[in-house]
Structures are given as structure tokens and as C-alpha cells.
Recover the amino acids of this structure.
């Protein structure tokens, strides 16, 4: 829509944050992509984000894109949005699928019944987009408010709901105007028992009592309680609308049929879990052994060649020794070794986004729910955790789709235990250097160890801090779909850009800082032996903590500090500090302990920042300290075990 | 009319929702997803580990946990024609048949049936009419 396409997944709750962008070729426009939601109730954060955005920032218009193949369900949100009295255009997406199955929608009648423009589109085939944009600009420009907000029927069950709503509307009209909330919206939300709206209206005690009385009377007359009555009112209208405007396909849709066939295997009684394990194994195998490795080798040799070329070039033109050292030892070594892991990250995200876009992630949640509930989480938590294998930052952000604060906290605590792609360089480097024969085994072992520690951690948390049951698991299972090429490509580009951005900012700065600290001593003169440098002094203070783990020297400590900036930094720093002599400095048992420690200790700065944004400063700090503690204990245990066997 | 909770509904059966329990977020969630009294809901299957169930409602697939499903009161409605007569789920043939209503030959009409064995036309008509008299009403 905006040309700078946002990521659209086949899983409710992919966009969790709002994103802005202008419409292509239309300057002076700003489109904000809001999270995909089902309702405007105040229970999940993505619903709150959308609701607050519309109420507070008062957009000039709403483009409401709904799935036409499942129109009854999706019109429910449309009803609520129309109550907000913001100009709106309704886009019926996936009309190609509806038509392909022999259904159709009478657009004109629907427009008439709803009082808003309705545009059939197909985002996948890029149909109807221009018309949609024109309509959207038109309604925003001329402020065409929805022609209808009143969906209650006077004749329905004696009109109890209708009378109740209109009576309350008169009562709260002034208050709603003062609070800047559309009256109709405020009314239905009060009846539904929405405390947030009720508070914002600042009603007097008397008025509250009157309203309560009206609602109780309505409940009696209608025979349903308040929230059910409102939901029923909306669905009754939708039923009427659908029976007049929608020609349903006679048979089961092709997509549904196909989904059912795929589901027989992917969520079948005996095949579901094997196929899940197989899928994930295939994803990781392809990423780390086939495609990613090949690309990585290619890139690494390219970087090596470039470094050497620059090295000779700098030597030839005879630049200052300090500058030479900075460029080659500092920047090229540090950033280069991190950069060569770009292919793996991109490939892993490619597969994860495929799984998400096809709709398989929702099935995974469905299949795994019972298992995850044992550790006090819900099936939905599997999505952030799987993304956590890619990168903790989007994983922490994805936890926002979870409907309760308790689940969010627990999932975020679990995420850092899933080895993110940034830790791969660390594993790869150490496994190859110390245990070249069992490298693959060691890496898999580390992944499993992370998961096991995470599960133990969750079990402990469930018994202590987070008592109680996981949140309700009420979720839609979308039909399987072919992922859009553009969509996936866009996501990959975003991830690559993000990684490069980090490589050239955080990691770039980190490598320069570390190079500076290790090349100069306290009097700012360049040192020959790095053990005299400032860094050695600083790390020397912390290092004794790690002596029981077998790596109490300042170099390793420094690399762990830089690993906090970005996990890849552990390797690059060690390379700068030790050169190629790592194997001679650390004992194998110490290397194992170091690997375990870098697996479990505090997530990188970017992830901590994400956690802080989700849970607040206190939690972020708590998680950092907590994980460092766990890492130390587990690493110590691993070292002891290693000592026994070696 | 048998009332029960959604949890007790057998696979493949359709029920009408009578009342929706639960409180707070859970209840609002039910309602927002269209789980409201007076709606038909069909149990499609259980997840492999037997816990969340997959249901069809308003033409889409919904998953619920068994514990949550136990909060929804339903009564079973007669299964749809096709589900009641799996016999007809295959290829269909239109056949002329005599239909009895209360023992009286009422009318001559077309009924759908699947050819299982190759009977002569008349014999087949009688057989099917005898077997499934409840089909046409």
C-alpha cells in the first residue's frame, strides 16, 4: 500500500507495532499500519494500541482491510470501528479467492447498508488498489463520516438492546464529547463493561446508577447478559447484511479443502509432532549446513580478500601506524568476522517467515499448546520462542501478541535462552577451535541446553513468581496460503538491513572502543603488549569472578563484556586480543564453560532495550542480573562435569 | 433436546450455543470471536495431544481449550444431511423413487443416492427409498 510494504503474516498479530509511511506517488499522505485485531476490547495490548491511536491521534480516515473469505467474523471489528465515527473505507481483501470459489458480494447493497465506501481488492494480485487509495483519500479529504453507526434493531427481541443503548447515549453524550470519545462507541463500551472508557467519561455516581439500572433492565428483557447482548446485536446485523449482500459459494472453498488435507498430516494425531520436529530440523539443517554455510564461506573469503588488499594498500602508501592498526586490527577484523554471519541470519529468517506466512505457525501453537501449558505458557508463546532462535529482539517484540501480562513476562524470560543467530559465531568458533571433531554435536548440545535451562527456569517461575493458569487460548486457524514473494523478500531485506545497521553502528563502535582500550595505556600512549593496556586493567577487576569457571583472564572477560554489546562481539574481541592463540590459552573444560556462559548470560544490549520497552526498566535489569547468575552456576556445573571426564 | 457443554460434543457434531460462561477477558474473547448464544458450532477435531479443539463457527476455524470449552453450554442440533447420511457423501445420482409417508405412497420424486452396487434401476430405487425414508420431508 505504502510502497514500502510492511510485513503481513498469515498469523493474527504479526504487526504488533504501528508503522508509518506515505502512499506511493501521493505526497502529503501518511498511512499508519496498525496491528491486526479482532475487536476493540481493552484486553490485549495490540487492541489497546489500535484503539488508543484512533481515539487520541484522530486519524482523518481509516482503511479497514478485511478478509472477504471470512466476512462474518471480520465485519465484527468493522461495526466497532464505525462506531468511532471516523471516515472509513472498507476494503474486501482476497476477493479473487471468493470469486474463484463461485461466490460474490453485492458491493452496492453493502455500501448502502453500511453507509461507507466498499472496495473489493486483492492485495496478492494487486487488484483494486488504485480505487482503494482514491476512495481513502476522498473520504479523508471531505471527512465523510460513516452513514450509519446504529446497528441495533428496534424490532429485535422487543428492541431491548436498542432502547437501552439509546437511553444511555443521551445520558453520556456530554461526558463523551468532553472526553473526546465518540458517543456511540462510549455507550456500547459502557454496556460491555469496559472500565477504561467508564473512567475516562467521569460520570457522576447518580448517572452510573441510572446506567446500571438501564442495563439490568435490558438484560432481563433480552434474556442475555450485557456483553453477550451487545455481541449478539452486532452479529445479528452482520447476519442480515450477509444474507442480503453476500452470495456464498455452494461448496467448501478450494482453500479450505486444501487446508483440511494439509492439516490431516500437519495436525494429525500421530503425524503432527514428527512433522513439526522434521520441519524445524529441516529449517535449521538447511540454514546452518547447506545454504547458509555456502553463502557464509563465500562472503568470508570475500571479506578476507578485501582485508588483505586494504592491508597491503595501507602499507604501500605508508599511513600512520596507529591508523593502520585501527583499520586492520580494529575495524576489519571485528566487523568482518561478524559480517560473515549475515547469510545465516537472512536464511533463517527466510524460513521462519515462510512458516509464518503459510499459516503453519498458528498450527504449531495449536499442536504445542498442551505441552507449553505444562510449563505455564500457552501455545501462542511458541511463536516468540521460535523467532528467538533468529534474534531475541523481534522475539521480545512478538511477545506483545500474547494476551496477558503474565504470559508476556514469562515468554520474554524464556526467549534469551533460545540461542539466537548472533550466538552462532561464538559456538562455531569455539567448537571448531577446541572440539573440531564433535563440532556439530557441541552446537546442537548447546541449543538443547539452552532450551532445557529455559524450561527449568519456566517451571521454577511457574511455581514461584507466576502462579496461576496460562491465558485463554481462543485463536483463529487461518487457511494455508502461498506466501507472497514480495512479502518475504521485503522481510529479508529489512532483516539484512537491520543486521548491517547494527554491524556498522553498535558493533563498529564496540570494536573501535575495544581496540582503543587495548592499544593504549592509561597515559594514552600506544602499547606494544596489550596486557599493559587500559582494558587489561578494567577487565582485571572483574576477571576473578570467572576464575572458578577456568577463564579468569582479562582477555576473556573483555570479550564477554563486548559480547554484551552484541553477542557476535565475543568472537571478534577474542580474535583481536589473542590472535590465533586461543586454543593454547584456554583449557577445553574452560572453553566448554565459556561456551555455556556465553549461551546463557545476559542478552545483548539491543534485546535488553527491547525488554525494557516491553516490561520496564526494573524487569530488564532484573532479567540481566538473573541470567548472569544462572549462566555462572550452569557454566560452573558444566566445567565440573568436563573436569571429571577429561 | 440434549444440553451439554461444548467439551462433551462428539467429533463431527454440530451444536447450538445456549450460554457462554467465563469472566473478564476470556468471556469478551469468546464473544468477539463470535461465540455467542444462538450460533451453530461444529467440533472438527482435537489437537494431537488431545487438548485444544478445533471448531468451526461463522465459517472459520477456531481453537479452544477443553477447560474453556467446558464453560460454554450447548445443545446438539440434528447433524446436517450429509453428516447424517455418509452414504451420500460420494458421487451422487438422481433416482426416481416412490416415497412413503405414513405408509401411503405420497409422491414420485427425485432423491440423491450413490450407486454402491450395480442394481437395475427400479430395484435400486426401491432399495434406497426403503432404506432412507427420512431424507425427503
Amino acid at each position: 500500500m505504502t510502497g514500502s510494504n510492511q510485513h503481513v503474516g498469515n498469523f493474527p498479530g504479526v504487526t504488533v507495532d504501528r508503522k508509518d509511511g506515505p502512499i506511493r506517488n501521493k505526497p502529503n499522505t501518511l498511512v499508519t499500519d496498525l496491528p491486526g485485531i479482532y475487536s476493540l476490547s481493552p484486553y490485549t495490548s495490540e487492541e489497546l494500541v489500535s484503539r488508543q491511536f484512533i481515539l487520541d491521534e484522530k486519524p482523518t480516515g481509516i482503511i479497514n482491510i478485511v478478509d472477504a473469505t471470512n466476512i462474518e467474523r471480520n465485519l465484527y471489528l468493522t461495526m466497532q470501528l464505525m462506531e468511532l465515527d471516523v471516515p472509513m473505507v472498507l476494503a474486501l481483501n482476497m476477493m479473487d479467492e471468493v470469486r474463484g470459489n463461485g461466490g460474490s458480494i453485492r458491493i452496492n447493497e453493502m455500501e448502502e447498508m453500511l453507509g461507507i465506501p466498499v472496495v473489493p481488492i486483492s492485495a496478492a494480485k494487486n487488484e483494486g488498489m488504485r480505487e482503494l487509495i482514491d476512495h481513502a483519500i476522498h473520504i479523508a479529504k471531505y471527512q465523510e463520516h460513516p452513514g450509519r453507526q446504529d446497528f441495533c434493531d428496534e424490532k429485535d427481541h422487543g428492541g431491548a438492546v436498542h432502547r437501552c443503548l439509546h437511553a444511555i447515549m443521551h445520558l453520556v453524550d456530554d461526558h463523551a464529547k468532553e472526553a473526546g470519545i465518540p458517543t456511540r462507541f462510549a455507550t456500547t463500551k459502557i454496556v460491555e463493561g469496559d472500565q477504561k472508557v467508564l473512567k475516562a467519561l467521569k460520570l457522576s455516581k447518580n448517572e452510573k446508577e441510572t446506567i446500571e439500572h438501564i442495563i439490568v433492565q435490558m438484560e432481563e428483557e433480552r434474556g442475555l447478559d450485557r456483553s453477550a447482548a451487545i455481541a449478539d446485536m452486532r452479529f445479528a446485523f452482520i447476519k442480515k447484511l450477509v444474507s442480503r449482500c453476500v452470495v456464498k459459494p455452494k461448496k467448501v472453498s478450494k482453500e479450505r479443502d486444501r487446508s483440511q488435507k494439509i492439516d490431516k498430516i500437519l495436525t494429525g494425531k500421530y503425524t503432527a509432532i514428527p512433522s513439526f520436529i522434521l520441519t524445524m530440523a529441516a529449517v535449521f539443517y538447511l540454514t546452518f549446513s547447506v545454504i547458509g554455510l555456502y553463502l557464509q564461506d563465500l562472503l568470508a573469503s570475500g571479506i578476507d580478500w578485501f582485508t588483505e588488499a586494504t592491508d597491503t594498500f595501507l602499507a604501500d602508501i605508508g599511513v600512520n601506524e596507529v591508523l593502520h592498526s585501527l583499520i586492520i586490527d580494529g575495524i576489519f577484523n571485528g566487523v568482518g568476522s561478524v559480517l560473515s554471519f549475515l547469510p545465516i541470519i537472512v536464511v533463517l529468517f527466510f524460513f521462519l517467515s515462510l512458516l509464518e506466512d503459510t499459516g503453519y505457525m498458528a498450527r504449531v501453537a495449536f499442536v504445542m499448546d498442551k505441552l507449553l501449558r505444562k510449563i505455564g505458557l500457552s501455545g501462542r508463546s511458541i511463536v516468540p520462542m521460535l523467532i528467538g532462535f533468529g534474534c531475541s529482539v523481534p522475539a521480545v517484540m512478538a511477545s506483545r501478541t500474547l494476551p496477558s501480562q503474565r504470559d508476556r513476562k514469562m515468554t520474554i524470560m524464556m526467549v534469551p535462552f533460545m540461542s539466537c543467530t548472533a550466538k552462532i559465531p561464538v559456538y562455531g568458533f569455539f567448537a571448531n577451535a577446541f572440539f573440531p571433531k564433535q563440532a556439530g554435536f557441541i552446537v546442537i548440545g548447546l541449543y538443547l541446553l539452552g532450551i532445557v535451562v529455559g524450561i527449568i527456569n519456566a517451571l521454577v517461575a511457574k511455581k514461584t513468581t507466576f502462579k496461576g493458569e496460562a491465558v485463554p487460548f481462543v485463536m483463529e486457524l487461518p487457511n494455508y496460503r502461498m506466501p507472497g514473494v514480495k512479502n518475504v523478500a521485503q522481510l529479508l531485506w529489512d532483516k539484512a538491513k537491520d543486521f548491517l545497521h547494527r554491524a556498522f553502528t553498535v558493533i563498529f563502535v564496540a570494536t573501535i572502543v575495544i581496540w582503543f582500550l587495548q592499544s593504549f595505556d592509561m597515559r594514552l600512549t600506544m602499547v606494544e603488549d596489550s596486557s599493559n593496556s587500559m582494558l587489561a586493567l578494567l577487565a582485571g577487576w572483574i576477571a576473578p569472578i570467572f576464575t572458578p569457571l577456568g577463564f579468569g583472564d582479562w582477555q576473556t572477560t573483555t570479550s564477554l563484556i563486548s559480547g554484551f554489546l552484541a553477542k557476535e562481539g565475543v568472537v571478534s574481541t577474542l580474535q583481536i586480543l589473542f590472535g590465533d592463540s586461543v586454543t593454547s590459552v584456554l583449557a577445553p573444560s574452560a572453553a566448554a564453560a565459556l561456551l555455556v556462559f556465553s549461551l546463557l548470560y545476559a542478552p545483548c544490549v539491543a534485546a535488553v532495550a527491547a525488554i525494557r520497552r516491553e516490561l520496564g526498566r526494573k524487569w530488564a535489569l532484573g532479567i540481566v542480573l538473573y541470567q548472569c547468575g544462572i549462566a555462572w552456576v550452569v557454566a560452573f556445573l558444566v566445567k565440573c562435569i568436563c573436569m571429571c571426564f577429561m | 433436546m440434549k444440553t451439554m457443554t461444548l467439551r462433551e460434543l462428539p467429533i463431527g457434531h454440530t451444536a447450538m450455543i445456549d450460554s457462554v460462561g467465563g469472566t473478564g477477558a476470556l468471556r469478551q474473547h469468546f464473544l468477539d470471536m463470535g461465540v455467542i448464544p444462538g450460533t451453530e458450532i461444529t467440533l472438527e477435531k482435537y489437537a494431537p495431544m488431545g487438548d485444544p479443539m478445533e471448531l468451526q463457527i461463522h465459517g472459520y476455524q477456531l481453537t479452544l481449550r477443553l477447560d474453556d470449552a467446558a464453560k460454554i453450554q450447548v445443545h446438539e442440533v440434528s447433524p446436517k444431511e450429509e453428516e447424517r447420511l455418509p452414504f451420500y457423501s460420494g458421487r451422487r445420482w438422481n433416482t426416481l423413487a416412490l416415497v412413503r409417508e405414513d405408509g401411503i405412497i405420497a409422491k414420485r420424486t427425485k432423491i440423491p443416492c450413490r450407486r454402491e452396487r450395480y442394481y437395475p434401476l427400479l430395484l435400486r430405487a426401491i432399495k434406497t427409498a426403503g432404506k432412507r425414508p427420512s431424507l425427503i420431508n
Remarks:
- The two ends of chain A are 61 Å apart (CA to CA).
